[in-house]
């Protein structure tokens, strides 16, 4: 069992229609410790009926919430942040236990998660309309913004807190109600966050969490006409399915899907900066984020130096249970994730790549994999096409700028890209040529609450965070007045 300082944050029921509820069937589903496989808790296994109940409750609650002033909504959101901060150690422990990331990273995630709530509490106050110039003297054209209504969020396990607050905060700030279906691996963090929102004074029905049967819950959230918007973060495959399921009711959609992030290191790069950037981007959360470097293109003049320095840095990483001091690499999320990493490495080695360090499961056992660097990777290998989502840095060699931009863009994904160069011209020209929603120049860390997060092509639709993020939860209304 887990021990938390605040026992009220370990929940086995879902906040639904103003009550902490169990599944109608009484069924529960276990939550496992990602590092040890131990059983840590049970959560309700809910389905369509409970989802319908949540949607009905959300509809009623939202009608009142939207009439509140933005300042009143902000006050509750700020109280939520204070409670998250007070309970941050418990929340971080929950993230590490169920998701596996090292405790230091989990603490960072709580700060990151809270930053979206603070940000959108303030943005709520800046949702303004405009008066347009009329086309005749006896007309007035008013454009205002109104909350979308009842929203749904389906979230992944790799950021069990931040992927929820990045959706819930702008929804609540805009005057919407939202129903969250967290990933089956990490429901405890979601339930704890909802408990803190309730303690902060958020009225019932505005933030409901449903755990259980993903297909049934997702099916109802997509099919139900009362739900006006779906925000999803997860795989492109599931995103495609949900988009199709939302088509009959023409829902507004935000989709944050897969990436296949290239990192380009030019000959003129600052080597230390490049290695630091690659380590941050590639090995955070053991390579399991959608903006993690997936392909590392290194210009021939710096290739050897970069690969030597990277191998040194990777060999200094410490693999283990994220609850232990000094651990920098936790487990992968499940056996399937390990198998995919192995498949990508095997495919590359068969086609002529060589393992410089790592390359196999870690001695710790379970779902731990040794941080790996692979050299001589080419465009013909799986690493070039598919998201590996694991602690493997594949090094590709290139010569010209044009060649590397072509390689980088040769994918159906378009989320994040990174370049390392000291040349000012390249710092401008290469990001412009890259078909990506976000580009880091001389940095591997680009996500924050201030900037618009999101991708193009099959990496998704819409942007989260930033002053643009609240628009995803607002509809424009035009009123034409004839005087
Ligand atoms: P991953 O393979 O990394 O778990 P997914 O895209 O499958 O990525 O999962 C992201 C989220 O989508 C999770 O909350 C998961 O439960 C949910 N999900 C997966 N399949 C479906 C589905 N058919 N309907 C609704 N939600 C789904």
UniProtKB/TrEMBL annotation:
Gene3D superfamilies given in the database record: Aldehyde Dehydrogenase, Chain A, domain 1 (3.40.605.10), Aldehyde Dehydrogenase, Chain A, domain 2 (3.40.309.10)
GO terms, biological process: gamma-aminobutyric acid catabolic process
Which residues carry out catalysis?
256
Q: Does the keyword DNA repair apply?
A: no
Got a GO cellular component term for this one? Answer: cytosol
Q: What's the top EC group for this one?
A: oxidoreductase
Q: Which InterPro entries match?
A: Ald_DH/histidinol_DH (IPR016161), Ald_DH_C (IPR016163), Ald_DH_CS_CYS (IPR016160), Ald_DH_CS_GLU (IPR029510), Ald_DH_N (IPR016162), Aldehyde_DH_dom (IPR015590), Aldehyde_DH_Superfamily (IPR050740), Succ_semiAld_DH (IPR010102)
Q: Which domain of life is it from?
A: Bacteria
Which keywords label this protein?
Answer: Oxidoreductase
What SUPFAM superfamilies would the database entry show? Answer: ALDH-like
User: Under which EC number(s) is this enzyme classified?
Assistant: 1.-.-.-, 1.2.1.16
List residues of the Aldehyde dehydrogenase domain.
24-479
Gene Ontology molecular function: succinate-semialdehyde dehydrogenase (NAD+) activity
Which Pfam families does its entry note?
Answer: Aldedh (PF00171)
**Family designation:** Belongs to the aldehyde dehydrogenase family.
Put simply, this protein is called Succinate-semialdehyde dehydrogenase
Organism expressing this protein natively: Buttiauxella brennerae ATCC 51605
